[in-house]
Amino acid sequence: SGIYDVVIVLEGTPTKLVARRKSNVAGIWINTSAVTFDSVPSYYAIASTRPLEEVASETVLTDNAIGFQYARMVPALGNKIAIAGAEMAKFRDAVIRLKQKEGVYFASDYAVAFIGQALFRATISLPANVPVGPLSAKVHLFKEGEYLSSYTAKVKLEREGVERLLHSFAFDQPLLYGIFTVIIAVGAGLVASTMFRKAGSH
User: Fold this and answer.
1) What 8-state DSSP symbol labels residue 128?
2) Distance between CA 53 and CA 26 in Å, rounded?
3) 136, 11 in Cβ contact below 8 A?
4) How many H-runs (helices) and E-runs (strands) does the chain carry?
């Protein structure tokens, strides 16, 4: 009995990120300040039975790092000391907007559906630019706003086929990969030049 809610958070490997602010100085837009984050989720997707503000209170969401505003973004130690809380929040918001624009941060309300008393289903799409590596899938269970429990599963996202071969070649043999790409570029240029000459002669 009662209203149950499920929130699924799919989170990518934390990475280092530098957020910069531009200001208009004498008519020229230049970087005037920056904040370094030691840890920012590379990918962050949320699927829920209802909008998060209807599922639980801000305190509960904060304690469990559920939602863009409460995701664990750890600023570098020097930034913590130099930048006040309100100013730091603006940089966090800027990071979130950038990630949303890139399509790697998104939320889907009503994306989790119960198909039985204890069975639910959700679909989360992975964009083409999602970083390769381990993903953490956290399932949170709520009842009438109260946090009940959670379950975490690990998923590893890997490249396959030609993409995997090219990636391995580029990172395992960077010198050979560079020579190979130059040869391909020169060859493509010669072929194109030959075709244009033939077309011009006709």
Assistant:
1) T
2) 43
3) yes
4) 6, 10
- CA 83 remoteness from chain centre: 25
Q: How many CB atoms lie within 10 A of CB 88?
A: 18
Query: What six digits make up the tokens of 168?
Result: 């391995």
pLDDT (tens digit per residue) in 5-25: 999 999 988 888 888 877 666
Q: In whole angstroms, give the CA distance from residue 130 to residue 159.
A: 11
Within 10 angstroms of residue 111's Cβ, the number of other Cβ atoms is 18
pLDDT digits (tens, 9 = 90+) for 69-125: 888 888 877 665 556 677 788 888 889 999 999 999 999 999 998 888 778 899 888
**Per DSSP, which regions of 76-145 are E strands?**
105-108, 112-114, 120-122, 133-143
